[in-house]
Amino acid sequence: MRFLLLILLALFLLLQYRLWLSDEGMQEMWRLRELVNEQAERNIELEQRNAVLEAEVRDLRQGREAVEERARRDLGMIQEQETFYQIVGDEYPTDDTRSDDDVTPDEKP
Question: Of 28, 95, 100, 104, which is the most buried if we count CB atoms within 10 A?
């Protein structure tokens, strides 16, 4: 009887070792649980992005305004009766923003 008890105790300790300390035990479960949580967060982000894209597709299918707005913004579309003005930047300062340093000698009073 004592021999059987020792064998069962040794088997129990061996199984406990495999459960807590081996690569196939609890450490692996904790690692997999962390991976599942990370993937769940990534899925939430992707679902939000998909919702935005789905709304955009719905807008593009339903109305001409969405298609026109997209063509104007991305492709620079101009209709026939429109005039296009392109403002490049502040190469020449306006009269309000000029200082005395910007004035040429023949412009000084």
Answer: 28
